[in-house]
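All the exercises in this workshop are built on plain-text protein records. The record below serves as our worked example for the rest of this section.
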Amino acid sequence: MTDTLFQPKTYSAPAIFFHWLVALLIFVTVPLAWVMTDMATSPQKLQFYSWHKWIGVTVFLLAALRLLWRLIHGAPPAHAGMPGWQRKTAALTHFGLYVLLFALPVSGWVMSSAGGFPVVYLGIWQLPDLVAKNKPLFETMKEVHELLAYGLLGVVALHTLAALKHHFIDRDSVLVRMLPFLRPR
């Protein structure tokens, strides 16, 4: 949306909330995934897998709410002094983040379904299987899920480094829009 009526100067409180909650969940579930995959089969390993799936479903739901909020309320325009290539890179990075925030949980859900492992959200609601049990598909989706996770980590690292560059090197207000308690440098 290019209409300034729908482009606030800063991110709204709900947008900031969704951003940081999703970030927190990602930073919890990635180490959880690394730990759980190396564990011997045990009740604790199964609990870790359940928690990982719960976080994945929650990230999917929050990403949907976040995207809906952004479509309705818009996002702040790029910083006025930002070069065109940085604007394009930022837009592509945000697009990639959204794609991965949806693709990663869905790939995990397909993997679980193909492996014959139900996804029971919060231990209460069993989500329907997306595919029938299929060992070759399970193995493929295991690789896809892992590659998507590394892709997400890469895009998050780029996103984080760019925000820090804007704050500490460019000394502009890009990071302040998502961390309002910071003062512009």
Summary: The CA atoms of residues 121 and 185 lie 43 Å apart. The chain has one domain: 4-177. The two ends are 29 Å apart (CA to CA).
